[in-house]
Amino acid sequence: MNIPQRYILSILASFATALAANATVVDLTGSNNSGSINGAQFIFADQQPTGTGVIQSFLRVQNSPVEEGYNTSGGTPFDDKAGPWTHDLTFGDLQGSTTTINGTDYFKLLLDVNEPGGNKSLISLDQLQFYTSPVGSQTTATVSSLGTLRYSFGANDAVLLDASRNHGSGSGDMYAYIPTSNFAGTNANDFVYLYSHFGNSAASEGGFEEWATFCNSTPVPEMSALFPMIGLLAAGLATCHVRRRNAQQLALRK
Ligand SMILES: [Ca+2]
Ligand SMILES: [Ca+2]
Fold first, then answer.
1. Ligand nearest 198 Cα, by number?
2. What's the rounded Cα separation, in Å, for the pair 92 and 94?
3. Most exposed of 3, 16, 28, 67 (fewest Cβ within 10 Å)?
4. Which ligand approaches the C-alpha of residue 168 most closely?
5. The model's pTM
6. Which residues are in the CB-under-5-Å shell of ion ligand 1?
7. pLDDT band at 171; cut points 50, 70, 90
8. Where are the domains of the chain?
9. 246 C-alpha to center of ligand 2: Å?
10. Mind giving me the DSSP string for 61-122?
11. Distance of CA 209 from the midpoint of ligand 2 (Å)
């Protein structure tokens, strides 16, 4: 934990916000736990998720001091890390992660960042975009041509993370909740591309960063406050069943 560096970054983030009127910097370092950019919620993952839900990884990116990439089964554009954990994702896959917070439906994703310790544990997520397309396995270097843009940060938006708040690779660090309404009209068989860029204001170092879909197997507190418990359990188990089976199959191929 390096408090001076975090303090400096916080000041820089404040200046950046002031200079760019439309910029939003979500700070998930220190004791800061949540923020919102363009309708998406970004929340610190304060407990390890493997015991409370089903995660299915679909994108790993790794480079230094910056890195970028999008999930595809067609190759390794940009800084994608080859292997079974970087692959196409269908809209049907994403729908398995649907969760409701305060009456709004979101797709729930988990980001696991992996950074060195000491004063190198910070990393910035500078860009997050989602595209949908009937064409899978794309490898274009022109990200904007991937398909229909469903969600994006603004040019100066960012999320600051501190990998040392959890325990490195294998420990999720942030949940991203993307409004399902952004994906209106998408077919279940369409492909979903998640493009992310890291490192602009806090360098990417160490191991890979990994995105996964997340399926709750138990109701989250926000939901249980709003709906009858029995309905929540039924809905949660129904949406998780298929995802859990697929996750187990994927684990066997590891
Ligand atoms: Ca981590
Ligand atoms: Ca890293």
1. 2
2. 5
3. 3
4. 1
5. 0.79
6. 112, 171, 173
7. confident
8. 3-252
9. 27
10. E--SS-EEEE--SS---TTBPPSTTS---BHHHHHTTEEEETTEEEEEEEEE----SGGG-E
11. 5
Helix (H) or strand (E) segment spanning residue 251: helix 229-252
Question: From the CA of 48, which ligand is nearest?
Answer: 1
Q: In angstroms, what is the span from residue 222 Cα to ligand 1's centroid?
A: 25
**DSSP code, position 181:** G
Looking at the CA of 208, name the nearest ligand: 2
Question: From ligand 1's centre to the CA of 164, what distance in Å?
Answer: 8
**Which residue's entry shows tokens 């029995």?**
230
**Helix, strand, coil abundance in the chain, percent, nearest 5:** 25, 35, 40
Q: Cα of 112 to ligand 1 centre, how many Å?
A: 4
Percent of the chain with pLDDT over 70: 73
At 58-84, the pLDDT tens digits run 999 999 999 999 999 999 999 999 999
Q: Please give the Cα distance from 93 to 105 (Å, whole number).
A: 16
Nearest to residue 110, comparing CAs of 120, 122, 99, 102?
99
Return the closest-CA partner of residue 111 out of 200, 45, 179.
45
3-state secondary structure of 47: coil
